[in-house]
Amino acid sequence: MTTLTSNLNSRYFQAANQLQKRQKKRIVVYVESYDDIFFWRNVLNEFENDDRRFEVMLPSRKNLSRGKKTALMNTLGEHLGQYMIACVDADLDYLLQRHTHSSEMMLDNPYVVHTYAYSIENLQCYAPSLHNVCVMSTLNDRKIFDFEAYLKKYSEAIYELFVWAIWLYRQTRFGEMTLSTLNNFISIDRVNIFNPDEAIEKTRHQVNRKVAWMQKHYPEAKGKIKPLKEELAQLGLEPSNTYLYIQGHHLLDNVVSAVIDPVCTILRREREKEIKRLSSGRKQQMDNELACYQHSQMPVDAMIHRNTEFRDCHAFRQIYDSIERLLSEI
């Protein structure tokens, strides 16, 4: 960061900005993938003013290389500076707190902003916002499922095992519980949206069995798990919000989609039945109204990826504060 070489790209943009003082300063923002462009553009909009503007783009214009590794561990990461920053998913690196090289690279680079939650998907699945996602998708505002209670109970069910996994990962013992292995234990199966507690209890049972196994096979962890929980709580992880810190794709595909898809199906059928009832047997009117409704609907997964109703989430507040700190030094 301190050499002329490491600041080459940033200084190029700085020089360009100085030549165009009447124009807004251009800050290039590199992100991991296509979906991240919309997410970070939405976040950064609030920080644009008469003096600065952001241009959000993928890490490379020369090839199709994408991802966090490109942003932090390839040549791009060496060239970040005042006018070139990176916005990335935290993954587990935030909770690992410099116990791994990738965590150290992310946390110690002053020109990197991260999600604090595992990924943008976790924020897009923020529990209080999911009813609104259903409304955007189905145009039906009737609340038939408590997403907040569901994700709170799910989080409490998986919390203990997740903390044990962080304990292992901080010792770089990833092979003793890979991320895919952890996902298998915290998966949820066959959720009945009218009785989700049954599926959650099955997950809790398999998690508790694994935690008991961990306690038996890792006696050296005795006395270390409790202080780790206290430290993680300072970072934001609580039993009630563990879902924000597990792998984002797993959360969306296995936990959230398991309930939001059937909820949206029911809401669409309700709206269609209402249209048929109100048409009073007038087939042409019914067909026209049904066609209009169907054309107005949006796929639920698309609405999740365009969800921006997570601004009161503590992880988003951390993002906001970190951007403010970064910009105060530019």
H and E order: HEHEHHEHHEHHHHHHHHHH
* Poorly predicted sequence stretches spanning 5 or more consecutive residues: 1-6
Distance between the termini: 14 Å
- Let me know the largest β-sheet: 4 strands, parallel
The rounded Rg comes to 23 Å
Instruction: Give the helix/strand class.
Output: alpha/beta
Shape: flat
How helical, in percent, are the residues?
A: 55-70%
What's the helix count?
Answer: 16
Side by side, the strands of the main sheet go 2-1-3-4
Number of strands: 4
Strand content: 5-15%
Q: Overall pLDDT, averaged?
A: 90
Molecular structure report:
This protein has 330 residues and is of the alpha/beta class. 57% of the residues lie in helices and 6% in strands. The chain is built from 16 helices and four strands. Helix 2 links the parallel strand 1 (25-30) and strand 2. The model is unreliable at 1-6 (pLDDT under 50).
Topology, element by element:
Layout: H1 8-19, E1 25-30, H2 34-44, E2 52-57, H3 68-73, H4 75-78, E3 84-88, H5 93-96, H6 101-108, E4 112-114, H7 120-124, H8 130-138, H9 147-170, H10 179-185, H11 196-217, H12 225-235, H13 248-278, H14 283-296, H15 300-305, H16 314-328
Parallel strand pairs: 1-2, 1-3, 3-4
Structure summary:
The chain is of the alpha/beta class and 330 residues long. It is built from 16 helices and 4 strands.
